[in-house]
Amino acid sequence: MIIDYGKRSDILAKVPEAWIEDYDDAWLIPGMIDGHVHYPQYYATAAQGGQLLDWLVQSILPAETAFADPAFANDTAKRFIKHLLSCGTTTAMVFGSQFAHANEALFNAARELGIRLIAGATLMDTPADGIPDALLQTPKQAQADAEKLIAICRDEPLLHYAITPRYALSCSEEMMMMCHELLHNHPETYLQTHINENRNEIRAVLAHFNQCKDYLEVYERYGLVTDRTVLAHNIHPSDGELDRIGQAQCSICHCPSSNLFLGSGLFPLSRHIKHGINIALGTDIGAGVSFSLWSNLSDAYKIQQLQGLSLNPEHLLYLATLGGAKALHLENETGNFSTGKSADFFVLDYTRSDYLSERLRRCNSLEAQLFCLLHLASERQVESTYVRGRRVFFYPS
Ligand SMILES: [Zn+2]
Predict the structure, then answer these.
(1) In whole angstroms, what is the distance from residue 188 CA to residue 205 CA?
(2) Burial (CB count within 10 angstroms: exposed 0-12, middle 13-18, buried 19+), residue 192
(3) 342 CA distance to ligand 1 middle (Å)
(4) For residue 31, what is the DSSP state?
(5) Which pLDDT value is given to residue 397?
(6) How far apart are CA 262 and CA 201, in angstroms?
(7) CA distance 86 to 378
(8) Lowest-confidence range among 17-31, 168-182, 370-384?
(9) Which of 27, 286, 308, 394 shows the greatest Cβ crowding within 10 Å of its Cβ?
(10) In this structure, what is the dihedral angle of CA atoms 38, 381, 46, 70, given to the nearest 10 degrees?
């Protein structure tokens, strides 16, 4: 836990017996909070396949079927969590597998390796062209699997369950009702899904749910838009949807690298801010091409630049840390260095790069240095990552 912060001399005067780990040539940054990442897409990054719906069928769903193999799922779960920690990510909200054993492997890896995890099985039960049968669950089985993991999370301070219908078109009415029931019966759980990512996707959703006036209404019909809900993307919302998202205190997760890779569009950040909506950032692996949320900040900056908004570095850093914590209701536990919070942070050692060291030396303010770091540093400069004061990653490890 963080018990104090300030100048080294002041802290040492208060706690002279303190054991010191010296990171003189480095920045200590609050742990990155990745609000949207797909574990079964670990090996599906940088896959060709056009835009969202084609890419899903061609490259992503086949990759997700590989998790039917327990040994593969076990190995991948560990690599996935280690990879996130090596990027300075200390909290991750994760879309899990369709296979129960693979999700158990994910929760076990998170417990063993020490990350703060919010996750749940990615739910699909509507057969369609291109969806392998192996990825479909029944609502009954999905509910039983979820109840098991929800029970495990009760005794684990770092593990949380997220009910995860993949998106409107992948779930039947019965599956959506089951999601509502879980959310209602277990108010400590989260609900995560996708919304308004791609124009063709929106057209397909509205054609299918032709009695709904917009995409959000599909989720509203089943009582899935609450203050425990995190909706990924929302690149093309109407003002009415933003109004209702704000009123419901539902959070949005913006995934910059993914939006660029899939050509999904430019996230309207200022419209979200105007509606008082909490925003997290996500890598959206495998549509995103970087596991580092830090690297996504540079893309987030450019996406707003294209819309005439020049974000300052403090705002960018906020989105990946305390902003994300607020969106996930974890702001009392993590997100910055306030006294009493969990010591979740990473050490960014800029001296690993000669160029970066020289570039920072030429900055005339801390703000200018942070701006440079946001665009020029990457996971290659992460030396250590800590969650709850425990070092969970150390380079090279
Ligand atoms: Zn996604």
Answers:
(1) 29
(2) buried
(3) 28
(4) P
(5) 55
(6) 12
(7) 11
(8) 17-31
(9) 286
(10) -40
The DSSP H or E segment spanning 95 is: strand 89-95
Say how many Å lie between the CA of residue 140 and the centre of ligand 1: 24
Q: What is the DSSP string of 353-397?
A: -HHHHHHHHT-SSHHHHHHHHHHH--GGGEEEEEETTEEEEES--
Rounded to whole angstroms, the maximal C-alpha distance in the chain is 68
> What are the domain boundaries of the chain?
29-327
- d(C-alpha 50, C-alpha 322), whole Å: 34
Tokens of 149: 């993991």
Task: Please tell me the distance between residue 35's alpha carbon and the centre of ligand 1 in angstroms.
Answer: 10
CA of 195 from ligand 1 middle (Å) equals: 9
Backbone angles phi, psi at 281, to 5 degrees: -115, 150
Q: Rounded to an integer, what distance in angstroms lies between the CA atom of residue 129 and that of residue 57?
A: 9
Check: CB of residue 300 under 8 Å from CB of residue 311.
yes
Question: Measured in angstroms, how far is the CA atom of residue 38 from the centroid of ligand 1?
Answer: 6
Q: What does the alpha-carbon distance between residue 279 and residue 255 come to, in Å, rounded to a whole number? A: 10
Distance in angstroms (rounded) separating the CA atoms of residues 371 and 360 = 10
Locate 334 and state its tokens. 């993590």
41 Cα to the center of ligand 1, angstroms: 10
Ligand 1 mean position, distance from CA 36 (Å): 6
Per-residue pLDDT tens digits for 100-116: 999 999 999 999 999 99
Q: Give me the pLDDT at residue 129, please.
A: 76
Contact 196, 224 (CB under 8 A): no
Query: Which one-letter amino acid corresponds to residue 279?
Result: I
**Class for domain 29-327, per CATH?**
alpha beta
Nearest to 111, CA basis, from 387, 396, 395 = 387
Local structure of 160: helix, strand or coil: strand
Residue type at position 152 = I
Check if the beta carbon of residue 80 is closer than 8 Å to that of residue 387: no
pLDDT in tens, 295-335: 999 999 999 999 999 999 999 999 999 999 999 999 999 99
* Measured distance CA(265)–CA(262) in Å, rounded: 8
Tell me the sheet residues that pair with 164.
122
